[in-house]
Write a structure and sequence with these properties.
Distance between the termini: 17 Å
Shape: globular
CATH architecture: 3-Layer(aba) Sandwich
CATH topology: Rossmann fold
Order of helices and strands: EHEHEEHEHEH
Strand content: 15-25%
Number of helices: 5
Number of strands: 6
Radius of gyration: 15 Å
Largest sheet: 6 strands, mixed
Helix content: 25-40%
Length: about 170
């Protein structure tokens, strides 16, 4: 093993599945993928909602309350081919975004080691509880929330995400 390389089982495959609307979740997902030497799978709705300001929160909140599941563009990775799956979403109306709801409803994940992360502008609400309920049958190893990582301290947020990812991978390999 090269100097400074992660100390987890080398043949353990990891995937970071995420949806990002404003770029915060993508930023954290990239830091996690770098540290865990993971592949990335960004969820993209076929018809992405484009709104700004208060309208963005209103439309997003209504989509969550209606339990919408937008059609996603085809996935270029099969999550079942991975040992560890990091799952990340922005917090919308206290839970995960509709694109993540669509993924969790249509992509079977069972028997995986899962780590949950989210990005929020304030409180994380019930996002992790909701994600755990959607991921029954998996071993959820860890949860981590990041508050406005691009707005406040991007370098620190990336470092925290990388350290957290390494801890998750170590726990998964134990």
């Amino acid at each position: 093993m090269e100097r400074g390389a992660p100390r987890y089982e080398e043949n353990m495959k990891a995937l970071v599945v995420f949806y990002s609307y404003d770029g915060n979740t993508r930023f954290i997902a990239e830091a996690i993928a770098k540290a865990a030497r993971a592949d990335r799978l960004e969820l993209t709705p076929r018809n992405e909602m484009k709104s700004w300001g208060a309208l963005k929160y209103l439309r997003g909140g209504l989509a969550v309350l209606a339990r919408k599941r937008p059609e996603l563009l085809p996935l270029d990775r099969d999550p079942m081919g991975y040992d560890v799956v990091f799952v990340g979403s922005p917090v919308w109306a206290g839970t995960f975004a509709p694109a993540m709801r669509a993924f969790l409803a249509t992509s079977p994940l069972s028997g995986r080691k899962i780590a949950l992360f989210c990005c929020c502008g304030g409180g994380k609400g019930r996002i992790f509880k909701s994600m755990r309920e959607a991921l029954i049958g998996n071993d959820v190893l860890a949860e981590k929330d990041f508050v406005d990582p691009l707005k406040h301290t991007p370098d620190l947020s990336a470092a925290v995400a990388e350290e957290w990812a390494l801890c998750v991978m170590k726990a998964a390999g134990a």
